[in-house]
Design goal:
This protein is of the alpha/beta class. It is about 40% helix and about 25% strand. The radius of gyration is 19 Å and the shape is elongated.
């Protein structure tokens, strides 16, 4: 399980973000000020995979924390900025921040940015597994029982979504939101049905009785 250091002084945001990140299978360490953030980095650097950093803190500021992180570690930093605060955004990027997201943000967009930064910086779990299927997120290859199988871009994206949400029920609307931009065109409900069928034909031993991607009647799908 990967660990995110959340540096934020708003207790409500800490509570909601911690719950969301834990649901996405991250471990979360949260602190509210500059001193505690630097102490956490010093003591737990080896276990921290990414820092989610607000600019305005109860004590000190996010810029000083980012500067200390970037001068002493290779831990990626994603800034949380006030909406429309262009100066803070530019300053953070100039200091070496790996990305930023403006408040208020959609949780799914934040998750996408976090995963992209982890991939870019080599901090992501490169090998994901679903039963006898393994996905190498760095090379974009998929193997079943040790032999490579070939997926279309949309099939691969679907498989990644299921692998990153093992055990969770994903509604059809959630899946459509995640994949519409990958295909380059609007993906409708019928298209989703077709691609899940095609994906099952490639990864399931018996596509008629799927054991990896299961249909949860009335709710959506769940990857075991």
């Amino acid at each position: 399980m990967q660990t995110i250091l959340l540096v934020e002084d708003d207790e409500e945001i800490i509570r909601h973000l911690t719950k969301f990140l834990q649901d996405e299978h991250f471990q979360v360490i949260s602190v509210t000020g500059q001193r505690d953030a630097l102490k956490a980095i010093e003591e737990k650097e080896s276990m921290i995979d990414l820092v989610l950093l607000d600019i305005s803190l109860a004590e000190g500021n996010g810029f000083a924390v980012c500067a200390a992180i970037k001068s002493n570690t290779d831990i990626p930093v994603v800034f949380l900025t006030a909406s429309g605060d262009e100066y803070s955004t530019v300053t953070g990027l100039d200091m070496g921040a790996d990305d930023y997201i403006a408040k208020p943000f959609r949780p799914r967009e934040l998750m996408s940015r976090i995963r992209n930064v982890l991939r870019r910086t080599g901090k992501s779990n490169s090998i994901l597994k679903l039963a006898n299927v393994s996905i190498d997120a760095n090379s974009g290859t998929v193997q079943k029982n040790g032999s490579e199988i070939f997926l279309s871009a949309l099939e691969y994206r679907l498989l990644l979504i299921f692998a990153n949400h093992k055990g969770q029920v994903l509604s059809r609307n959630q899946l459509l939101d995640e994949i519409w931009d990958v295909a380059g065109d609007f993906v409708n409900d019928n298209t989703l049905t077709v691609y899940i069928k095609r994906l099952r034909e490639k990864i399931e031993d018996d596509p008629g009785k799927p054991k990896i991607i299961k249909t949860i009647r009335g709710l959506g799908y769940r990857a075991e």
